[in-house]
Amino acid sequence: MTTSAGTRITRETLKAPWLQNTLGGLPCLCPEMGLEFPISCMIYWEVGFKVKLLPTATEFMDGLQDRLKAKVARSLVLLREFGPYLREPHAKKVTGWPGLFELRVSLGKEACRLFYFWHGQQYYVVTSGYLKKGMKIERNELEKASTLMNRYLESTGGTHEGH
């Protein structure tokens, strides 16, 4: 068995105490390995979500310093791996903006946010990002992300469903 990232899973991996203690869940039979393990483990290792970056998000990431860019890349991996189960401190629903979420990335005193939404039953779309300067999300950045989301949905005929 392999993860969505292509990592090989062995019986020893599934028996690891940290995995058993952190994932919990109902037991589920894995016929390929003749092993019982938590169903939440099966969901985590087998599902994987797709993430698409719009050009505005790619441009934003390209302009970041290498260390912050690496943390953003790690956050995108977390979004791909955990999908709707990714919550604070990594991700948060943006209050008052239906369907819009933020990836929260910090490195020392630097912080940035990337906005994203769930495109129907298919994938996550990251619209844009910005370097955070204060405690609140900048309204103009939210408006930009919302506009990009709506344009994308109109062009693809999709809908955003809150995760």
Key structural traits:
YaeB-like fold; 163 residues; 39% helix; single chain; two-stranded antiparallel ribbon; alpha+beta; disordered N terminus
Question: In brief, what are we looking at here?
Answer:
39% of the residues lie in helices and 25% in strands.
Q: Which strands sit side by side, in order, in the main sheet?
A: 3-7-6-5-4
Overall SS class: alpha+beta
SSE pattern, N- to C-terminal: HHEEHEHHEEEEH
Under CATH at level 1, the class of the largest domain stands as Alpha Beta
What low-confidence regions span 5 or more consecutive residues with pLDDT below 50? 1-5, 16-46
Fraction in helix: 25-40%
Strand content: 15-25%
What is the CATH topology assignment of the largest domain?
YaeB-like fold
Helix segment count?
6
Count up the domains: 2
Question: How would the global form be characterised?
Answer: globular
Main β-sheet description: 5 strands, mixed
Query: Radius of gyration, rounded?
Result: 18 Å
